[in-house]
Amino acid sequence: MLDEPTSILSPGQRTREPAGDGHPRSPRWTPDDVLGLFELPFADLLFRAQQVHRAHHDANAVQLSTLLSIKTGGCSEDCGYCPQAARYHTGVDNEAMLGLGAVLDAARAAKDAGATRFCMGAAWRGPKERDLAPVLDMVRGVKALGLETCCTLGMLKDGQAEALAEAGLDYYNHNLDTSAGFYGEIVTTRGHGDRLDTLGRVRGAGIHVCCGGIVGMGESRRERAALIAELASLDPPPESVPINHLVQVEGTPLHAKLHGERAIDPLEFVRTIAAARISMPSSMVRLSAGRRELGEAVQALCFLAGANSVFYGDRLLVTGNPDVEADRALFEKLGLEPA
Ligand code: SAM
Ligand code: DTB
Ligand code: SF4
């Protein structure tokens, strides 16, 4: 798939082949290229990430997206990290889909608190036809409030991405989650290729792509580098790249395997953010799940490494997130301005 040999030049310095439409293609990053970033001395890596960040973004701005779980629990999939899979005993119940009124109330509250994007998540393998119509109403309603809209509903079938685009969906979140090589260790009910298929449908419908992954699941540094290289080699790279630190939830297989203990050093998480920033200069890099556990000092390093977006609000989907007051205090301390 990667048709360029590894070069001593970073991909950003290599000559880019023009794509068929005459526009330059985004540079290809190999896992070795990205591994080279991970292996830089920490200060050199962060300096390079800052240079790239400042060349492409306002270094002191942070974009705020608020999540809402519109359909919680009871999912048929076996993702080893996920508290919403029906087969694991995590204390998350299979709930009915929220009604339009409740979703719009939450969206209004998110907007009042300062979020600019509202992301609706469902614990589905993918939406059934009868599920999609109410979601389309939610997208229309949230859009009408003047918020950017995002959904994460699992795998999409023919016509579904187009219907979402038609309703006014701005972003679709669908993560590669981990490298192709490690994927089968984490999920068996679908493959890495299925994720790429849905990402292609999202792109094809003209919806912006939000695609990232989870680190701290027992993967190696090379596997983390391979994930970042694959994200950066999507053509074009995702507009938004959420980097999640695994939130270990009791009852999930990964909690059992890792005994609730961190699988990576927090500074390795910071390195992952920096590698994402350097390899995807124009993308928004979102410091995503796990912020509560990382603490303020590590979050500050993540912003220094080029993260410029967060999930904002007391909850992610079913687990906790720093509350709004804590985030406001952190942004104030760091001189970060909501974008
Ligand atoms: N069911 C859909 C799917 O899997 O694509 C959408 C919702 S799913 C909960 C969205 C994303 O949440 C996953 O791709 C994963 O990256 C993230 N996620 C789920 N559980 C997590 C956890 N315990 N820690 C960190 N990220 C998690
Ligand atoms: C993403 O990459 N992270 C968010 C969002 N996209 C949907 C979800 C994180 C979920 C963390 C565990 C939970 O609360 O379910
Ligand atoms: Fe279902 Fe998504 Fe959780 Fe996997 S990550 S179990 S698909 S809700």
Characteristics of this structure?
10 strands; alpha/beta; binds S-adenosylmethionine; 12 helices; 41% helix; disordered N terminus; binds 6-(5-methyl-2-OXO-imidazolidin-4-yl)-hexanoic acid; 339 residues; binds iron/sulfur cluster; 10-stranded parallel beta sheet
> What multimeric state do the chains show?
single chain
Q: Helix count?
A: 12
DSSP strand count: 10
Quote the distance from N terminus to C terminus: 36 Å
Helix-strand pattern: HHEHEHEHEHHEEHEHHEHEHE
What percentage of residues falls in helices of 4 or more residues?
40-55%
Mean pLDDT: 93
Class computed from helices, strands and strand pairing: alpha/beta
* Spans of at least 5 consecutive residues with low confidence: 1-9, 12-20
Shape: globular
Structural features, described:
This protein has 339 residues and is α/β, with parallel strands linked by helices. It contains 12 helices and 10 strands. Helix 8 packs parallel to helix 10 (266-279). The longest helix has 16 residues, at 129-144. It starts with 30 loop residues before the first helix and ends with a strand.
Q: Helices, strands, pairings?
A:
Elements: H1 31-38, H2 42-56, E1 61-71, H3 100-113, E2 117-122, H4 129-144, E3 148-152, H5 160-167, E4 171-173, H6 180-186, H7 192-204, E5 208-210, E6 213-215, H8 221-233, E7 240-245, H9 253-258, H10 266-279, E8 284-287, H11 291-304, E9 309-311, H12 324-334, E10 337-338
Parallel strand pairs: 1-2, 1-9, 1-10, 2-3, 3-4, 4-5, 6-7, 7-8, 8-9
Bound molecules: S-adenosylmethionine, 6-(5-methyl-2-OXO-imidazolidin-4-yl)-hexanoic acid and iron/sulfur cluster.
